[in-house]
Amino acid sequence: xxxxxxxxxxxxxxxxxxxxxxxxxxxxxxxxxxxxxxxxxxxxxxxxxxxxxxxxxxxxxxxxxxxxxxxxxxxxxxxxxxxxxxxxxxxxxxxxxxxxxxxxxxxxxxxxxxxxxxxxxxxxxxxxxxxxxxxxxxxxxxxxxxxxxxxxxxxxxxxxxxxxxxxxxxxxxxxxxxxxxxxxxxxxxxxxxxxxxxxxxxxxxxxxxxxxxxxxxxxxxxxxxxxxxxxxxxxxxxxxxxxxxxxxxxxxxxxxxxxxxxxxxxxxxxxxxxxxxxxxxxxxxxxxxxxxxxxxxxxxxxxxxxxxxxxxxxxxxxxxxxxxxxxxxxxxxxxxxxxxxxxxxxxxxxxxxxxxxxxxxxxxxxxxxxxxxxxxxxxxxxxxxxxxxxxxxxxxxxxxxxxxxxxxxxxxxxxxxxxxxxxxxxxxxxxxxxxxxxxxxxxxxxxxxxxxxxxxxxxxxxxxxxxxxxxxxxxxxxxxxxxxxxxxxxxxxxxxxxxxxxxxxxxxxxxxxxxxxxxxxxxxxxxxxxxxxxxxxxxxxxxxxxxxxxxxxxxxxxxxxxxxxxxxxxxxxxxxxxxxxxxx
Length: 584
What we know:
Blueprint: E1 15-19, E2 22-30, E3 36-43, E4 53-57, E5 59-63, E6 67-75, E7 81-88, E8 93-97, E9 100-102, E10 113-115, E11 135-138, H1 140-143, E12 155-159, E13 162-166, H2 172-176, H3 179-185, E14 189-192, E15 196-198, E16 206-212, H4 219-231, E17 235-240, H5 250-258, H6 304-319, E18 325-328, H7 336-349, E19 354-357, E20 374-377, H8 378-389, H9 395-407, H10 411-414, E21 418-420, H11 429-432, H12 436-448, E22 452-456, H13 468-471, H14 485-499, H15 501-505, E23 507-513, E24 519-526, E25 529-536, E26 542-543, E27 552-560, E28 563-575
Parallel strand pairs: 11-14, 11-22, 14-17, 17-18, 18-19, 19-20, 20-21, 21-22
Antiparallel strand pairs: 1-2, 2-6, 3-4, 3-7, 5-6, 7-8, 7-10, 8-9, 12-13, 15-16, 23-24, 24-25, 25-28, 26-28, 27-28
Helix pairs in contact: 6-7, 8-9, 12-14
């Protein structure tokens, strides 16, 4: 037995409440190492000694190149649990508890793993609507000035004593006038990059958190956008930039002017006096900032006054404009205490508002239910890039990567992740792919994987770009046709996802992922039904097994009999015949 591969972490993604009546327990072991894994659980408040334990067989929920993830879901267990595992590799049986291996059980219940209480307040509960959501990410400067039109012209507006800038002429009204385009595409939520008053076109250097930037329009135009989106069943998520502000934000102006006498001196992180705005962009400023960007001083959100101000910002746009949530910029660099306070403030206004953190790495720390509901899943892009674009990962490695991505979170968190192929911060995925067909397979994977698919504006129009100016290029309204192959691909994939509950709520299981192969097959299953998806990234035809093809073909490109052509895919709906006796 490979004991070094065995892992269990209480009160984590390895042991958590799904809801008040269901608890999931996981254990990691070496791939193929165990023949059986059994959970013994009891009431930790049991009046008898030794505790009376109940045995449940666990099953392999997921597998990577290195590990098996054993799992069991308990229905209506005791509210307070103590538990241990019996591991059997065919040669030896050993108990596992307290992070130690043992030959026998003990009477002292405190030595076992503990699940103290399945408290409703500790259960991770993202808004239910996220599982049914497909997001369209709009970079407002680049999207539209009016109906099916973006001017491509630079703009300048006065805002108090400052001048604010736009690069391509996009506006709030432009988004509103193209809501019908969004409904044709099929998306049911938009996430808009920053729209509040700020100096540069990207609007990440904030001047005023309570008003729309005049280059984009007015507060009233934004209110109308939200109302009209809601009438069409589209939710609106906006970008919150709270890690830093612009260096002409009123509070920073004040500390530059008054120094240590400014009432805002505690609003900023590590100020050196006098506070000077360096003219040379290569100069390191005498204050903390975003990266080393001197024009974006970092806010001290561990100070109560600063935190309260930005919690008011969070509440303001929900209470007055009825937005449906926040995407939170540079979320991993802000103190946890602020995020907990911000979450409480927002959820008091609307418990169904979503909070999506920008975290580029594994984000479990922020997804325990006290801070964010979701994060931007950049790992999804990274893994897809290796398999669909660079072709440097085979099917086994790709499956291992996406399995790790699923197993690192609680199940309900996986279904809330914002799965993206590209965004305003990275190259267009189409530009990374060797051909258009590979990109099509990546889109099919995105739309059939657990979580919220996020489409960056213009992906459906074939926008390409490696540099920032390219991947933030204007929406190509003049050449876009709603009969183009990519638009139709997205439209049909979104429609299929909305039609099939399995693709939104079903569990995930690998069907085929072999070393050295570029054929990847997986299924989503729910109750007695399953949908199988096969993606052939091979340079040649791949043969599918007859049992894989049983059922109704919902969609295929390149399938002839049992042969799936290079860069082809097929989606098949059939019966879920695998017995999952231990799955509740």
